[in-house]
Amino acid sequence: MNNSYITAYYYDEEELLEGIRQIKEKGVEILDVMTPFPVHGLDKAIGLRRSRLTRVAFWGGTIGALIGFLFQAWVFTQAYVINFGGKPFFAVPSFMPVTFEMAVLFSAFSMVLAFLIYFKLGPGAKPIIYDERSTDDRFLLIVKAGDADETKNIEKALSQAGAEGIKHKA
Amino acid sequence: MFKLTKKLQTIGFAMVAIGLLALAYGFIAGLGGDRIIANLHLNGFYFMSLGLIGMFFVAVHAIAESGWQVSMQRVGEAMSYFIPVGGIIMLLVFLFGGMHHLFEWTDEAHLDRILLGKVAYLNQPFFYIRFAVFFAGWILLAWMIRKTSRELDINGDKKYFNKLRKYSAFYVVFLAITSVISSWDWLMSIDAHWFSTLYGWYVFSSMLVTGFSVIVIFTFVLKKMGYMQHVNDEHIHDMAKYMFGLSIFWAYLWFSQYMLIWYANIPEETIYFYERLKYFDTIFYMNLIVNFAIPFLLLMTRNSKRVFWVVVPVAVIIFIGHWIDLYQLIMPGAVGHEAAGIGFLEIGLTIGFIGLFMLVTFYGLSKAPLVPKNHPFYEESLHYHTNY
Question: Which residue blocks in chain B are alpha helix, DSSP H?
């Protein structure tokens, strides 16, 4: 978070969803929401757009399948040409299991790596604790703050919407 | 309440008439008893299985205490009305020439060593006893589930829900065992010198994906007629997930059976695929493209699963595709490459069966309210949200 932000928390998910609805009406920009468990309908409430990880998964899988298939084709027709029980050297049926597994492998690995890179969770990453109570059982709301006046208005809007523990981080 | 209007009846009977015309054509054009019988057998089995899967849809979701399917449950129940109809047709086919035209193990005078080894199982008395057991169980259990489902709708008492789950459990277990054994009897024994231990599940997965697709097709038709307005994008999304996943599952089983036989390269087993690749190769590859490549590519994205104008055409494609699947399971062994073909007999007869299946399912739909208002999960199915 480069800009300053305000954190606030709720005690349960119904209040959270209702509070989000109220502050969005007031035009407050939500940066993030942290919940102890997945909340049904939260994505829609904060207007979260669809994850791009699905595209990573698709291309990862396609590339994995191509690499797997082409590598086997090269090995068994050029590099280590061995006669296995009279089967053809370019044996498509026998290439399929490895091709499938490579697709799954590349898809899964690329999703995990993309996730870690995007959220800067590589080795040595320091955890950012916005509010310690989010590590326990509170539903944390992180909203964008502005200059001093805007911040006061936002804080007022938040407490009207039922949030507690409102803190400002510059 | 659904009404089986005169217009629908006319359409249905017109299609049945086309089927009878095709049958007559088969006799007049001298297409041969093998081919005519094989087509009657194919279509009888195909549509009967759709009835079985219709009830399976209801049963398996009742056991899982799932709520979303309640909106479409009546379609599955209505399809199960065809089980006895298909059974009668199959029985008539067997009694009037089917046994000798379809199954070489009925030719008692010319049993070779392999067929003699299987004679304790592949003999006509045992065959008919199994037939009777299968249909008695299927018809009885489907009837009890339908009855309990209707009682549940009348007074929503939890004890009927528990009864529904109990009968559903019996049905699912009974179907799992009998669908496998029946596929050996009615399909695998056509090529009696061959066998595959994966066969039963391969056939079942084929029927499963087709049955669920047919539920989608009927739901769409009903919506177009003004019924089932409570079925929304969320329900279609989940049905499309089934169509996508079960098509992949079917392809997985297809490939498992094929690859193992290809790799071991044992002539006793490979002869099965050799015949198909040599004489029925177009059908053989079309089977894979239509049943795997098309559903896999067209239903991959989330959005495609939520629009009727993608899901319903793919459902129709799956329905046609698994007819082709059954074709390459039955025709090479029952008819042979010289006499087999796809002409007016095949297409007309299938249209006739579609008409008959439509009439029976619509009749079934008219026997109970389309909307199970007192089902404990009805409200849940109205507000259902599926995510990915």
Answer: 6-28, 33-63, 73-79, 82-93, 99-102, 113-117, 124-155, 158-186, 199-224, 233-264, 267-279, 281-288, 294-298, 308-334, 344-365, 378-382
* A157–chain B nearest CA distance, Å: 30
User: Alpha-carbon distance A22 to A163, whole Å?
Assistant: 11
> In sequence order, what are the residues at sequence separation of 6 or more whose Cβ sits closer than 8 angstroms to the Cβ of residue B199?
B183, B184, B187, B188, B257
Would you state the torsion angle of the CA atoms of residues B33, B38, B43, B49, taken in this order, to the nearest 10 degrees?
140
Query: In angstroms, rounded to a whole number, what is the distance separating the alpha carbons of residues A22 and A95?
Result: 57
Three-class DSSP category at A33: strand
Cα dihedral value B113, B114, B116, B119, nearest 10: 180
Q: How far is CA B272 from CA B28, B100, B267, B269, B331, in A?
A: 32, 20, 9, 6, 12
Cβ separation of A96 and B265 shorter than 8 Å? no
What's the rounded mean pLDDT across residues B248-257? 96
| Interchain contact A39–B (C-beta under 8 A) | no
- Residues B342 and B108: their CA atoms lie apart, in Å, by 31
Q: Which residues of B70-105 are buried (b: 16+ CB within 10 A; e: fewer)?
A: bbbbbbbbbbbbbbbbbbebbbebbeeebbebbbbb
Find chain A residues with C-beta within 8 A of B385's C-beta: 40-41
A96 and chain B in contact, CB less than 8 A = yes
Are B265 and A86 in contact (CB < 8 Å)?
yes
pTM, to two decimals: 0.91
Our measurement of the distance from residue B343's CA atom to the centroid of its chain's CA atoms, rounded to an integer in Å, reads: 22
Assigned token pair, B20: 């009878």
- B/e letters for A146-167, b = 16+ CB within 10 Å, e = fewer, are eeeeebeebbebbeebebebbe
How many whole angstroms separate alpha carbon B90 and alpha carbon B204? 18
Q: Residue B379 pLDDT more than 80?
A: yes
Spatial separation of the C-alpha atoms in residues B207 and B193, rounded to whole Å: 24
Q: What percent of chain A has pLDDT over 70?
A: 98
Nearest to A96 among B255, B300, B302 (CB): B255
Distance CA B301, CA B284 (A): 27
CB A20 within 8 A of CB A142: no
Domain borders along chain B are: 6-371
Average pLDDT, chain B: 94
Res. A1: pLDDT tops 50: no
Please, what's the largest Cα pairwise distance for chain B?
64
- What is the tens place of the pLDDT at every residue in B173-183? 999 999 999 99
Residue B69: predicted pLDDT: 93
How close, in Å, is residue A93 to chain B by CA atoms? Answer: 6
Four-residue CA torsion sign, B202, B208, B214, B220: negative
CB atoms B265 and A41 under 8 Å? no
In chain A the domains, ranked by start, together with CATH numbers, are: 5-50+129-169 (3.30.70), 53-118 (no CATH)
